[in-house]
Amino acid sequence: MALRRTKLIAALAAVPLVLGLASCASAGAADEASDVVKIGVVGKADPQWTAFEKVAEKAGIDIELVDFSDYAQPNPATTEGELDLNQFQHIVYLADYNVSAGEDLTPIGSTAIYPLGLYSTKYDDVADIKEGETVAVPDDASNQARALLVLQSAGLVELKSGGSIFSDLADIDEAKSKVKVTALEASLTPTSLPDVAAAIINNDYVADAGLSFDDALAQDDPSDPNALPYVNIFATRAEDADNETYLKLVEIFQTDADVQAGLLEASGNTAVPLVTPVADLQDSLAKVEADTKAAKG
User: Fold this and answer.
1) Rounded to an integer, what distance in angstroms lies between the CA atom of residue 184 and that of residue 182?
2) What tens digit of pLDDT does each residue of 262-297 get?
3) What number of helices (H) and strands (E) belong to the chain?
4) Which of the 8 DSSP states describes residue 156?
5) What band does 226 get if pLDDT is binned at 50, 70 and 90?
6) How far apart are CA 183 and CA 172, in angstroms?
């Protein structure tokens, strides 16, 4: 498929362990040189990764995908050098990690933006959700804020001051909201469905929960020009941002037809693939980090 080269401009007011390295040839062992890159992902079984491994091998790059079920793990593993790259998060999530941990992971390429959806096994329409029932959202800061904005758009909650990328449960105006909201670790929101009226479920967990993306009762709009902070990215340590092998892997992901087809298949055709200039990603990260520091006081 033809990729849309997209340059999104964010206008902000204020969303997976082992040693890895990219080996280079030494003067005395050029014939043994190889590129070995360890990449942290969430959902290694997704079809884009099978295609990605094959294309990388043809390009002479040996990669190892390291699978995670917990979003909290890949960034520390990348910081510590246990991974070379990771690909599981959007800019807002990375900004929150960098600010909280005092680190400098940086985006080196975009992959796609995904709508964030509200799912239920009890109701077929948001309007059917009864007043006073409970809805689950992810507990990590970036995805929780985005989830609350989805709930507000769906008419289930009202957020004080209209909400922002920093909204949390304390920002819910309970007197004006239709439902109660509880926060759970992202991988647990699908398993909470029997016990709640509905749940915001990250794309990585939709299929594993036996759900279809078409089942979403509500979702946000990935085409919004203010959505740049929610673009998913490849991230690495700042010192490795110009690594040619890493940048080649980003290019493969963005341009190979089989990888892109797998990306769309894994997302139920909800993903919007993007080739966003790296400078724009890094500028957005700097902006969101500054806003995050200000919000944290």
Assistant:
1) 7
2) 999 999 899 999 999 999 999 999 999 999 999 887
3) 8, 12
4) S
5) confident
6) 13
Return d(Cα 78, Cα 76) in angstroms, integer: 5
Structure tokens at 157: 């909650």
Q: For strand 117-119 and strand 198-201, is the pairing parallel, antiparallel, or unpaired?
A: antiparallel
What is the pLDDT at residue 35? 63
The answer to whether the CB of 125 falls within 8 A of the CB of 255 is no
Tokens of 140: 């990590």
**Is the model's pTM score more than 0.90?**
no
Please choose, from the candidates 205, 195, 183, the residue with its C-alpha nearest in 3D space to the C-alpha of residue 137. Answer: 183
Q: What is the DSSP string of 62-98?
A: EEEEEE-S-TTSHHHHHHTTS-SEEEEEEHHHHHHHH
pLDDT tens per residue, range 114-133: 999 999 999 999 999 999 99
Q: In this structure, are residues 44 and 67 in contact, taking their beta carbons and an 8 Å threshold? A: yes
The pLDDT of residue 29 is 32
Q: 137 and 181 in contact (C-beta within 8 Å)?
A: yes
Return d(Cα 188, Cα 8) in angstroms, integer.
Answer: 32
